[in-house]
């Protein structure tokens, strides 16, 4: 009788164990790599809706068409790797990007294939990489000035922001988000949301279809979405963190200032002129629309640029890196391109997607 009860008890335990394991296997894909099992991603491809995202992993991502990049970038990549010695570093080439999209974002594959230029593909893959693996993405022309952590460690997701003077003078926008520096915990739904919205962006101009203007519009839509209400916040970084400088190569930055008094376009305003400029800006805050009433925002931008002598970068204790605006990927930047070098042989720490599988951490 006792043996019969014991057998029944053991049978129930085994059955419960099977049920629990089956439930876990439904929640996670299990992948065997190098003899170990790794939870890769929840079956819910939206990336989850929990408000508790895990930490951003110590993984740095770069993109380029191949492992042969312009030598202009070598110093910047070297600085970032040296300041973050315990980080994994991945390079996403065109072939790697296509494979990642095919493997894990097949519903985006047709849109990705429709992109004509490298710039659109480079924009799109960074959103997929951050959603899938998490970490920090940087353009290769971002010069690191201090380690990425601890400054960026507390965020579940973040995006860079252009200096307001530049976004006002070039685009008439008080806020323009930059995809030159972004970060995320694995599976944060914002970056999956970006990919979904990119499907509806038509045309072949990167700025509008995959780049900063597209990202900014998608972010504002995200704020009112159901996903945003359930997810950890996306932090828009102050421009001083990565984009404290301005793009001196773009004449659109200073040409609007010609219609204002000379001090607004001066690279070296006198003390009297500086007092006038400061008076113009008194009480003004680009992030407070109530201070914009009755003001010409381009006039404010020109006054602010003149006060910083135009070429001055806004560095402070928040500054992690500096976006250098080399624009080597554009046709107009071709004359500035240096000879190419091999990223993989110059920096053996850099890995490719073939070794990235299984390196994810717990998703949102």
TrEMBL record:
Which GO BP terms sit in this record? mannosyl-inositol phosphorylceramide biosynthetic process
Q: Which GO terms describe its cellular component?
A: membrane
Organism field: Macrostomum lignano
Query: What keywords does the record list, in alphabetical order?
Result: Membrane, Transferase, Transmembrane, Transmembrane helix
Q: Which GO terms describe its molecular function?
A: mannosyltransferase activity
Protein name, as recorded:
Alpha-1,4-N-acetylglucosaminyltransferase
User: Which InterPro entries does this UniProt record tie to the protein?
Assistant: Glycosyltransferase_domain, GlycoTrfase_DXD_sugar-bd_CS, Nucleotide-diphossugar_trans
One Pfam family linked to the record: Gly_transf_sug
Source taxon at top rank: Eukaryota
Kindly list the residue ranges recorded as spanning the membrane: 6-24
């Amino acid at each position: 009788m006792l043996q019969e009860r014991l057998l029944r008890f053991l049978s129930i335990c085994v059955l419960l164990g099977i049920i629990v394991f089956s439930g876990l296997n439904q929640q996670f894909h299990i992948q065997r790599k190098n003899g170990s099992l790794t939870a890769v991603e929840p079956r819910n491809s939206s990336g989850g809706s929990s408000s508790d995202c895990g930490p951003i992993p110590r993984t740095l991502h770069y993109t380029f068409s191949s492992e042969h990049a312009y030598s202009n970038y070598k110093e910047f990549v070297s600085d970032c790797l040296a300041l973050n010695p315990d980080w994994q570093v991945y390079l996403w080439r065109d072939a790697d990007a296509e494979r990642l999209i095919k493997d894990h974002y097949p519903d985006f594959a047709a849109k990705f294939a429709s992109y004509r230029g490298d710039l659109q593909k480079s924009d799109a893959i960074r959103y997929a990489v951050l959603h899938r693996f998490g970490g920090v993405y940087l353009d290769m022309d971002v010069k690191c000035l201090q380690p990425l952590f601890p400054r960026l460690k507390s965020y579940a997701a973040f995006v860079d922001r252009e200096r307001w003077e530049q976004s006002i003078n070039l685009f008439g926008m008080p806020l323009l988000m930059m995809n030159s520096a972004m970060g995320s915990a694995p599976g944060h739904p914002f970056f999956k949301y970006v990919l979904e919205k990119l499907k509806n962006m038509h045309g072949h101009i990167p700025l509008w279809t995959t780049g900063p203007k597209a990202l900014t519009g998608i972010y504002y839509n995200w704020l009112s979405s159901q996903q945003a209400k359930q997810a950890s916040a996306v932090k828009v970084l102050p421009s001083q963190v990565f984009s404290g400088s301005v793009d001196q190569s773009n004449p659109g930055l200073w040409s609007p200032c010609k219609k204002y008094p000379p001090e607004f376009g001066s690279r070296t305003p006198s003390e009297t002129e500086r007092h006038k400029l400061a008076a113009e800006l008194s009480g003004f805050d680009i992030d407070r629309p109530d201070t914009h009433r009755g003001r010409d925002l381009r006039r404010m931008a020109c006054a602010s640029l003149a006060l910083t002598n135009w070429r001055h970068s806004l560095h402070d204790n928040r500054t992690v890196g500096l976006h250098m605006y080399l624009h080597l990927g554009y046709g107009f930047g071709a004359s500035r391109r240096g000879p190419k070098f091999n990223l993989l042989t110059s920096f053996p720490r850099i890995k490719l997607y073939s070794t990235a599988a299984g390196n994810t951490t717990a998703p949102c």
